[in-house]
Amino acid sequence: MKFLDLAKVYIRSGGGGGGCVSFRREKFIEFGGPDGGDGGNGGSVWAEAVEGLNTLIDFRYQQHFFARNGQPGMGSQRTGRTGDDILLKVPVGTEILDGDEETVIADLTTVGQRVLLARGGNGGWGNMQFKSSTNRSPTRANPGQEGVERTIWLRLKLIADAGLVGLPNAGKSTFLAATSNARPKIADYPFTTLVPNLGVVGIDGHEFVMADIPGLIEGASEGRGLGDQFLAHVERCAVLLHLVDGTSSTITRDYRTVLAELEAYAGTLLDKPRITALNKADALDAKTLSSRRKALEKASGGPVFVISGVSGQGLPEVLRALHAEITGARAQVPTDAPWQP
């Protein structure tokens, strides 16, 4: 299944049916009076977060969603039928934006959460509604209210507890494959990962979800490489794991490059708890590993984990550190409210 995290959708609610002008005409009934029924309400457009979806690919093939109009009223005091609603089923973590791509209409972060996007028009009154003591034979009826037509954007932000960031070929996919049930593509060339991947990580009987996004390069905020289009998928993470390629001769520069791109995208990403790990330790001798770890600790201003996704070195320790940060973030959120960044 292809991954799609941004879709443009056109929606329109149904218009209300018009009211009916009718009079009762029956044999042996001299004064029948007005009996025109009301029009039915138009259908509305809703969006709901459901389980089992992790992409917006369905909206690549269908972009127009129009609810049905209400039926007009009829004689004998018969009300028109209400139009059927339209329901857009989206993955959990979908943001719904207005046509300007900036105004957030709703953020669906829990299963079953539902939002009204376009309300159907009300049905018009039939002439029976206008009967009064001074107007015994009204000949007017209201037209139905028109539906609402609008353009919206659906933007998916995957909900994960921890996010992997780093340059291309930093070993993020290898780390995810070694610690979770995910099977991302792994190869020895840049930008092997083209779409985000999710994996469930287990440590000491606890589980959490980790997201791997395509690597960042210098100038990603300006559109270089794959750009920063996938950074939205780590905005909801409680902690970031910054992997640095230990075989690189410019590890401090690599470290600062990723931080600069995170800040250029959204400064709030730098405010998140961040764990730094020197990856590919299995490919370095002890002396080189020690010197590069010290250089990275000086650049980051904190401790650095030494790990290897291939040999498994240091993986339990860094997973425990990630879980501790996630647990601390969850403890600060009320149990009856979903976690949000």
Features:
single chain, 341 residues, alpha/beta, six-stranded mixed beta sheet, five-stranded mixed beta sheet, 18% helix, rod-shaped, disordered C terminus
Q: Can you offer a commentary on this structure?
A:
With 341 residues, the chain is of the alpha/beta class. 18% of the residues lie in helices and 23% in strands. The protein has helices at residues 58-61, 172-179, 251-265, 268-271, 286-300, 315-331; strands spanning 6-12, 45-50, 64-66, 86-91, 94-97, 104-108, 114-118, 149-156, 162-165, 197-203, 206-212, 239-245, 274-279, 304-306. The strands form 3 sheets. The protein has a 6-stranded mixed β-sheet with strand order 10-11-9-12-13-14, sandwiched between helices. A hairpin with a 6-residue loop joins strand 5 (94-97) and strand 6 (104-108). Helix 3 packs parallel to helix 5. The chain is rod-shaped, with a radius of gyration of 29 Å.
**How large is the share of residues in beta strands?**
15-25%
Instruction: State the helical fraction.
Output: 10-25%
- The stretches of 5 or more residues where confidence is low (pLDDT under 50) are 335-339
Whole-number mean pLDDT: 84
Got a strand count?
Answer: 14
N-C termini distance: 28 Å
CA radius of gyration: 29 Å
Report the total helices: 6
| Main sheet specs | 6 strands, mixed
Shape: rod-shaped
- H-E string: EEHEEEEEEEHEEEHHEHEH
* Helix-and-strand structural type: alpha/beta
Biggest sheet strand order reads 10-11-9-12-13-14
